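Section: Multi-chain targets

For targets with more than one molecule, the full set of components is provided together so that the structure can be written out for the assembly as a whole rather than chain by chain. Components appear in the order listed by the source. The example entry contains two components.
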Amino acid sequence: MEMTAKDVTQAGARAGKKFSKREKKALFYGLLFTAPAVLGFLIFTLGPMIASLYLSLTDYNVFKDTTHFIGLDNYTKLFSGEDDLFYKSLGTTFYFVILRVPAVIIISFFLAILLNMNLKGRSLFRTIIYLPSIVPAVASSMIWLWLMNPDLGLLNTALEWLHLPTSSWLFGEGSVIPSVVLTTLWGIGGTVIIFLAGLSGVPKSYYEAIDVDGGGWYSKLRHITVPMLTPTIFFNTIMTIIGSFQVFSEAYILTQGGPNNKSLFFVFYLWRTAFRDTEMGYASALAWVLFVIIMIFTVFIFKTSKSWVHYEGER
Amino acid sequence: MRESRLKLTAGFTTLLIISVMFIVPFVWLLRSSVMDLSQIFIMPPQWIPKPFHFENFKEAMTVVPFGAFFKNTLIIVAGVLIGTVVSSTIAAFGFSRIKWKGRDMVFAILMSAMMLPGAVTLIPSFLGWKELGFYDTFYPLILPSYFGGGIFNIFLLRQFYMSIPQDFDEAAVVDGATYFQIYWRILLPLSRSAVIVVALFTFLGSWNDFMGPLIYLKSDSRFTLALGLQMFQGSYNAQWDLLMAASTAVVLPCVLVFLIGQRFFLEGITLTGLKG
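Its structure, encoded as tokens over all components, is:
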């Protein structure tokens, strides 16, 4: 590329003076406008993060007078198996994530495809699917506790009516995690809408090309919809994983970790350790373990994304 | 695109069935909220209460001070709403309409906070607020929103601001306008719909927040609706009629706000440019 005379003089001026008057003014106002946000980041994110890392290396407990620096003892205690609830809650949370993430992605993907069709009452359907996702978690948990009540709940009543075996839902050791997954699927609307936004960006002419070639709905799905939506699938998967690892309100209200610690979700366990048992040093170590696990998952998906996420205009 | 009749019918039927499944919990909630216990336990279940027991709402309000909880929730939500809207629009302006050295790097660092699980900052934040004497007050729930108003909101508004042509600003600069005037007179009026989206998301987020109030509020008299509902469940766990009436009272404002602002919601999600 050729440099114009103007570029050269500007570059020269820049070399001579570090900042032009205008640039200085922009820098000043740029920093001024973003100062609250930057300050907020330092006070409410970076500062607490460092403090949390330090706390995790101590035996800090609100009710103890002295606090000692104990190095990696908290982490050794975690991983050595001395605290069997740690592995239990980790296992529970992994099970939940493995069950929930594919369910959320697959179901919301197909719901979005249905909602994208040129159907009668389409906007009403969209409203109905989205609505549950704005219901407060406390209230939706209350509704599901009632629906899943083993004796009088609607779900078991319906199953009995259909002569199917009933379930103890949230009260069964084996059924509790799938039940919690089920309750969260009601709030799938946000993910569906993001898929819908993705679908609206797929040019109709692509499908017409398949029509010309005589392909059916499956080849459209396989060769156009899925590849074109990989960036959206990628985004939704990451967000769903991050969210699923941190489920708290549902855990707190639906089960409180029960029955027999079978739904001891990680963040619930963390909250209990920090605020009920007041072991805040140890709980900080738990928080960092969670952070690292989420980081590993995110980085892993980012790394593999190169081979399956297609961005338009690439290549 | 032409879609075959068969395909449309199949799609419509599937959606209809799924929609019914999505609506049933709402219907179950509503009908249980206006029944007395004996009606609730009738088998097979009644779908339409006969008679309607609207006094459930009154009774639920008297056993637990939901009026006070409602007021507390409103104070917190209003405080957060103002803080978030003011603070996030100002920050988004600084990250999109002013060109300054290091801008995009600073923004990227702030964005990284979105990946951080809340659990990591939870304990030190709690200890900090407690140290300042703000435990069992609304401040820990409200004040942070005045510092940027959440990176997600800044991101959303920034996307919108960047789609507005820079010529507007340049013309204003020629006329001698300050950055603040550009923000106030040009950007804010032009981005009304994006601001509404941020306000709606913020309203819901704050209204629905459970963990924050659970950790920072101790006295019953300062509880929010979400927390109050949970407390109510603890003491009246078999009173499904009252519990459902209380739940309805918590859900209703959200549903109303959503239905009023629905148009903006769907726009807002597209706004974030998540199309890929």
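DSSP finds 14 helices and no strands in chain A.
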